[in-house]
Design brief:
The chain is α+β, with helices and mostly antiparallel strands and 757 residues long. Among the domains are: 345 residues, no CATH class; 141 residues, Immunoglobulin-like (Sandwich). It contains 20 helices and 35 strands. Strands 1, 5, 6, 7, 8, 10, 11, 13 and 15 form a 9-stranded mixed beta sheet that branches. It has a 6-stranded mixed beta sheet with strand order 12-4-31-32-28-26, with no helix packed on it. Helix 15 runs parallel beside helix 18. The protein starts with 5 loop residues before the first helix and ends with a strand.
């Protein structure tokens, strides 16, 4: 894979796409066009022209970025990743209506789907000759929200500055962008005549509401039996010859099976479910597990003694389990339902359509039609038809943390909020006093009067209402460093609807809560039902990331989700309104207003991570030497094998893969760092790699950041393996400095054999 220059190419995208006035016209092959030439060269004779079938392609591409000296998935300052437990992937389906439109849906094992990623993917597709087929309107990219993934690849300061490791990592960015783009291209090139089947059903005990107190403030909470959306929605793809292609499902639950102390990259519950379903189905089957209304849903269980305490993971409840079992237990619940729905799915009619628009969420006038009764008595702007979203701010209520184990806990959740009283015929706002915080956070309360003046937070008070605006992030201010020309977060929010048969997926860049999703689904279904749409999915963390989206009532409660509903109390109503605009355009067959295109900030990443700025220091030592050997024998059902090798920095192999030169040392398509091998008939057969959920690789520099030596610890948790003779191998690539030039050394470390009994 080669690097590309997004800043140069992004400007050319409008020339490659259809004109603005025809922004939602069908993307069909033109005789003699580049698309037709590509298909002819590939010999795609199996493509359908039948109006009763689709053309569907699927692909899965590795997008595992650097995992050493990178941020952990909980944005805890100073905490870094140091290992790999499962590889991360982009799983993509390209769906085409013969003679009609084509769409791509990519699901990426990532913490967030930053706007930089989506824009980079569209740029890369244009560079590689697919710009006349795909653009920002018909490509949907979402994150599985695994909190066991690193980040450091956003263009916006909030997501790179307030992190475990400060800064932007160019290597990580290109690995993820190029990998997602590659999965889209492969899926398009692999498409074949197919049918799509649909099923929906509840996941038993798959998720628990982590903000029950806030949820219960919704007056419509009593209308539902459950305080989470239990339903999984699944699409099944089969070729017309009956061969399985893959499946994608949407189910809302956080990727927090692994806790804040985890330091190894992992696909979490959805990544494990995908891995296991693909393993069971065999072949090139692709199984994507995507997010729906995830904002207030945890896979972990509430503490029976107190629902406000940290939720409990399987290893907290069962002493026979450890942390690597947690995503397996949670993923199994989703897998069971996915397999059940896959078996009972029914064929859908053929229809493909889409709409897309960017909306500046800093100031969206919101119609009372979409607010309805969901307002507070002191929301007087509603009576005056002047309700709107707010310039984005982060609320101080996040300092109370959440039940997942956020790295803050200085007050009871819901305590940090402004209140309103009716005095002398008018509503009066009573501001929370930050000196009431616990512990070291009291210093913030003492300094707040001065900090508030510097940040000019008082100008946000009226719009923010119950939120104590702690950090303005939505507008340009000369105070901000390091990017004085842009806000801290993206404010041009992408809105997208994609139709497949009688299902519409509404793509939200927010972590949308259960009730906010239910209300949006109801509005969209009312509009789209006249066009034959029977089912709605609200997707979370799609095409960008703009924090949370809570209902008006949940916002007033100012729990963790409300404090990070950055665009103010009417954000959810604005979301319903703008999504409904796209839905109405879809029903009427009209193109949607494209809205303000976000800026390309690729050249403005002034702060990089240390490792991105300085690169890998000289590797040294006896590479591959076994420093800690395995025991002679282990139990084949329950033991763990731990070995230690003299290592090289794992980033080097990733750099060489990205620049296209890893092939000088290893096959890029089959390269694995670790292999667990079993001796069969005199030959060694690989039974597990770092993609296996029960292996892990952890790396540490011995002697500090500038030391040349490092060690790699390989762990294999044995789970129901055949008895026999085994060994573990480690494959690396070392970077060596010799005065004024650099060389690379391929090496392999191999343990002595050991027995499983």
């Amino acid at each position: 894979m080669k690097r590309f220059l997004p800043g140069v190419v992004l400007a050319a995208i409008p020339l490659l796409a259809t004109c603005k006035n025809n922004s939602d016209a069908p993307l069909v092959p033109i005789p003699g066009s580049e698309e037709s030439a590509i298909e002819s060269a590939l010999g795609l004779q199996q493509l359908s022209v039948d109006s009763n079938t689709y053309n569907v392609g699927a692909s899965k591409v590795d997008i595992t970025g650097p995992f050493a000296q990178e941020s952990t998935g909980y944005n805890s300052p100073g905490e870094t990743m140091d290992g790999l437990a499962m590889r991360l992937y982009s799983r993509t389906f390209v769906i085409e209506q013969p003679g009609g439109k084509v769409i791509a849906i990519a699901t990426a094992d990532q913490l967030h789907l930053y706007q930089s990623i989506k824009l980079g993917v569209i740029t890369k597709l244009a560079m590689d000759g697919y710009g006349h087929i795909f653009n920002e309107r018909n490509v949907m990219v979402s994150a599985t929200h695994t909190h066991a993934a690193t980040s450091n690849h956003s263009w916006y300061t909030l997501f790179n500055l307030f992190n475990g490791v400060t800064g932007f990592d160019e290597l990580h960015y290109y690995v993820v962008v190029n990998g997602i783009a590659q999965s889209i291209k492969e899926a398009y090139d692999n498409r074949q005549a197919a049918v799509i089947k649909f099923a929906r059903g509840p996941v038993e005990d798959g998720g628990f509401n982590r903000s029950t107190i806030a949820y219960d403030t919704n007056p419509d909470a009593a209308d539902y039996d459950e305080n989470v959306d239990e339903n999984m929605t699944l699409l099944r793809f089969d070729s017309v010859s009956g061969n399985p292609i893959g499946s994608i499902n949407w189910y809302g639950v956080h990727g927090t099976s692994l806790g804040i102390n985890n330091s190894r990259i992992h696909g979490n519950n959805k990544g494990w479910a995908s891995y296991e379903m693909e393993k069971q189905m065999g072949g090139d089957f692709v199984a994507a597990f995507a997010q729906s209304t995830v904002g207030d849903v945890s896979p972990n269980e509430p503490d029976p003694a107190d629902i406000t305490l940290a939720f409990l993971r399987p290893s907290d409840l069962d002493p026979t389990l450890d942390t690597l079992d947690d995503p397996v237990v949670h993923g199994q619940k989703q897998l069971n339902k996915a397999l059940e729905l896959y078996a009972q799915a029914q064929q859908m009619d053929v229809a493909v359509d889409y709409r897309h628009s960017f909306v500046n969420f800093n100031n969206v006038p919101v119609s009372n039609t979409y607010i309805g009764s969901h307002r507070m008595d002191y929301d007087t702007e509603v009576d005056q038809n002047q309700a709107s979203t707010c310039i984005a701010t982060v609320g101080a209520a996040f300092l109370a943390g959440d039940e997942e184990g956020a790295p803050v806990d200085f007050a009871e959740e819901g305590a940090i909020r402004n209140s309103y009283t009716f005095e002398n015929g008018q509503w009066v706002r009573n501001e929370y006093n930050l000196t009431n915080l616990d512990g070291v956070a009291q210093i913030l309360g003492i300094l707040w009067p001065l900090a508030s003046q510097v940040l000019q937070t008082t100008k946000y008070d009226a719009c923010a209402k119950e939120k104590l605006a702690l950090l303005p992030v939505g507008e340009v201010d000369d105070f901000w460093f390091p990017n004085p020309d842009v806000p801290f977060i993206p404010v041009n929010v992408p809105m997208q609807t994609i139709r497949i048969g009688d299902l519409v997926i509404a793509g939200s860049s927010f972590e949308i809560t259960t009730m906010a999703g239910r209300r949006a689904e109801s509005v969209l279904l009312d509009t789209l039902s006249s066009a034959g749409v029977d089912h709605i999915v609200i997707g979370s963390m799609v095409n960008s990331y703009t924090n949370y989206l809570a209902t008006r009532e949940e916002y007033a409660a100012q729990h963790y989700e409300g404090s990070f509903t950055v665009f103010g109390p009417f954000s959810a109503a604005a979301f319903r309104q703008e999504m409904d605009r796209l839905a109405q355009d879809m029903v009427s067959g009209q193109p949607s207003n494209p809205g303000p295109v976000p800026p390309d900030l690729s050249s403005q990443q002034l702060i990089e991570t240390w490792i991105s700025s300085n690169g890998v220091v000289n590797d040294g030592g006896d590479f591959g030497k076994v420093l800690t050997a395995p025991a002679s024998s282990y139990n084949a059902n329950r033991d763990s094998v731990t070995v230690v090798f003299q290592a090289a920095h794992p980033r080097t192999a990733l750099i060489k893969k990205l620049d296209g030169t890893l092939s000088n040392y290893y096959d890029p398509e089959s390269y694995n760092m670790i292999e667990v091998q079993r001796r069969v008939n005199g030959n060694w057969q690989t039974v597990a790699t770092e993609s296996d959920p029960y292996t892990s690789f952890q790396w540490v520099r011995t002697g500090g950041d500038l030391s040349a030596t490092s060690e790699a610890t390989v762990l294999w948790k044995i789970r129901n393996q055949p008895t026999g003779t085994y060994r573990i191998r480690y494959h690396g690539l070392a970077k060596r400095w010799y005065f004024f030039w650099t060389s690379y050394q391929k090496f392999t470390g191999t343990t002595d054999s050991f027995q499983l009994q």
